[in-house]
Amino acid sequence: PGSVSAAFQEYLQHLGLQDFPCGLGSWNKSRLNARRRPRAEPAGLEEAVPPGEETPEVLLELLRDQHSPWALPPDCSPQDRLLREVAVLAPELLHGSRVFQAVKSLRILDKGVEEVDEGLLQFQQLEELVLSANHISRVTSAHLPRTLKVLELCCNAVGDLQDLCARPPPELQHLGLGYNRLCGPSQEKHLTMDFWPNLVSLDLSFNSLTDLLGLVSQLSTLQNLRILVLQGNPLALVPTYRGFLVDSLPKLSILDDIHIWPDERQQFHGLARQPDLIRSEARVVVSIGEMKGLPDPEAFQQLEVNSEGPVITYSYCVTYEF
């Protein structure tokens, strides 16, 4: 599927919410028809189940028993199980477009999605959207539900945040952009309080961000930011990288998955006031453990002094690509 909506329809087919033992069919038709008719008298004892139909308890057991052919795999999400059980107990709640109102978390991983389309606006209760490991290069914020609190776009091809920041979800608390194509220093301007007033967690790991000073000046406006991941960017190679961030963002609790304790904050106190220590360069030490296929240097030492024997000189070139 090329869009999120198409991937969701494929996901619904996988769940089989309209197929036995879910949905409406000969296995539960009279029970659901009785629910639609107005009650003529107070509810008493449950009526006997007509021949050929099953009780809700039996249908639920078919979903929950791990040996059942209708059971979901053990690693499925809690929402998958919940939707299928609702489709047994009250299938009318998931009929047609109503299914969009029941989904609060949508996880579409590695499905070849390229477009975040406007069909997402049908999810009026959506709080978590995970689209990792797809082929998304552009996210139009107007297509995102305003109720969104978690947006995870790890391992995509996002290189520009302008469209995402045009009208971002105001309640967003986590933004995951790790393993994308963000390059500095043009993208830092989109990471401020003006766009993300409630952001608590931000993952920018393994991109191509280079301007540490510029990035910190923008992130310092995020008053609620507590978790930050920047490892894997060139700016993380700066010798004073961690200390400068710890001192510059006093409200930060976790940096690169490592908790910031009071003694570490005290250790780096005052480093934020010394930006001259931040250099746009880094030193990389490469150690070569073993090289195969080279002539043995000891063989050359056997030549006698002033020998007229042929001397062969070898030259080698090693290239590092960053």
- Give the overall silhouette: elongated
Amino-to-carboxy terminus distance: 34 Å
Q: How would you classify the helix and strand content by structural class?
A: alpha/beta
Beta strand count: 8
> How many helix segments?
8
**Largest sheet composition:** 8 strands, mixed
The portion of residues assigned to helices is: 10-25%
Number of domains: 1
Strand content: 5-15%
CATH architecture: Alpha-Beta Horseshoe
Adjacency order of strands in the biggest sheet: 1-2-3-4-5-6-7-8
Q: What order do the SSEs take from the amino end to the carboxyl end, as H and E?
A: HHHHHEEEEEHEHEEH
CATH superfamily membership: Ribonuclease Inhibitor
CATH domain fold name: Leucine-rich repeat, LRR (right-handed beta-alpha superhelix)
Overall pLDDT: 87
> How large is the radius of gyration?
30 Å
CATH C-level name: Alpha Beta
Note poorly predicted spans. Answer: 40-45
What does this structure look like?
- It comes from Cnemophilus loriae (Loria's bird-of-paradise).
- An 8-stranded mixed beta sheet has the order 1-2-3-4-5-6-7-8, covered by helices on one side.
- The protein contains 8 helices and 8 strands, in the order H-H-H-H-H-E-E-E-E-E-H-E-H-E-E-H.
- With 322 residues, the protein is an alpha/beta fold.
- The protein is 21% helix and 7% strand.
- The protein is elongated.
- It has one domain (4-31, 53-277): Ribonuclease Inhibitor (Leucine-rich repeat, LRR (right-handed beta-alpha superhelix)), CATH 3.80.10.10.
- The protein has helices at residues 4-15, 29-36, 56-64, 78-89, 99-102, 212-219, 241-248, 262-267; strands at 105-107, 128-130, 150-152, 174-176, 201-203, 227-229, 254-255, 258-259.
- The two termini are 34 Å apart.
- The longest helix has 12 residues, at 4-15.
- Strand 6, helix 7 (241-248) and strand 7 form a beta-alpha-beta unit.
